[in-house]
Amino acid sequence: MEIGQTSQYFQSLRTQNPTCRSSGPCFQNSGQVLDLLSPYQIILLVRMFAQLQVRKMPRRRSNDIKCTVQYEVFLSPSYRVPVVYFSMQDAESRPLRDIDDVYTLLVPQAFKNQLRDVGVIGGISTGDHPITGIPTFFIHPCQTAEALQRVAAGRSVQVEEYMFLWLGIVGGCVGLHLTPDDMWRPP
Amino acid sequence: MKTGSRDLRSLQNKVWEGSVPLEIRLASAECTTYGVSDAFLIHVPRISYIPLLLPKLHAFFRSSLINHEANFWDGWLSYEDVPLKWHFPLGLLYDLYSGASELLQDDNGLGGKKGQPVYGAEEQKLRDQLRTWKLTLHYENWPSESLAKLDQDGKFMRDAFTNSVKEASFLRHGSGKVVMALSKEDSTQLWDSVEQNDFTRFYPVSQRLFHPPGANLRHIPTKIYLPATASEDDKEGTSLGHLKVVQSLITPSLSARQPQTVGTALNALLPSLFPSRRSPLLALPMLHGAVVPLNTNLQSLAEAAGYADGFLHVAVVMMV
Lengths: 187, 320
Known about the structure:
Chain A is α+β, with helices and mostly antiparallel strands.
């Protein structure tokens, strides 16, 4: 999947405790760091325009189909880890709601089998968006908590690094890649 | 208050025997008889889900459908134009939307004070007066802003149920280990028991899930549902009949001597609606069609009256 970044923006990492970035809470279990953030607070909002190669539509003259993917990250009130919700629209801004489209268009080949084998219909489910209530795709967080614990256990981790660890584990499954340069910093 | 395990089992059994009376008609625009269709009357278990009802509904209404091609999984139900979320148990939907809760609060000459919830014998008399919950069945214009699509094999329904079971288990024990350790037979039996409304098949699996050896109860799986009238938010882009679902980490005890009650939990989660931990002043918690007294021990309530997924799904209704 090639990502043509026409526009890309982030909202700031919002926290209730403005001193949390400097005081650096210690990461002891997977929920502790994020206790500073309220359950439905939006952590990141990313909008990317992605040019995707679609192999399943041979009738089109060009194999490139322009889709929009919108990612939103929320803190799960139960699992206490970030959860990525995402929605897709085609070139005419019509929502793509078929889960097969997600696997065909968004999930990189390397992750497909891994993600599909989890649970009843795979690691990607549809659930009510935490704010709007609209059915939205999300990556099920049940295994994220344990994976993160293994990666960062015993170390002192700030919120920012925690988010990048999480992005590394989860984001790649749905084409969400960020670099430290992408992070907005308060002036 | 620790209830004996036999008492608990019989309480849970009662919850499973609970049902809601539905009166379902086909949307008039989709009906060949140009207007009001026949009514499908059924008592549906409170712990059941809409997708489990769809095949029966399709069989009944099929001959009246203008669109012969419609599949049973294209069916969706609405109450007064509000699409009903199929991943919510029917008991929860009834508590939220049927208006039965308002009836329970009226002074109707049964001796209850106006604005005070009715219990006991008066409550039973009132229940006998309650009419069926009238719903509309549709096969066209799937409301995708409110409902995810279903499939022929019921995979999406099972996925939603499984996710809920996992979440409840994670909350209870602080990790996914217990639910991951459940055998394939047990997982299948859990869902099958809901499909068939068979408590005797549910009970043994639920014991392994809710009371694994050596595990402490960390949090009580609870979700609180606020209909749009109760919630102060009015955000744009929210779906019709929008609900706010509130949940947080709720411990079984506040301290060594203070158990968590329904009142203490609601006061902590929604202080503006539940300013007092002991008396309802603005709103009432509803569970399985009954108003829950605020001094109810939350852990006991969860054990006796949880839904099949292990959650307490509590509806909040405003006091009249």
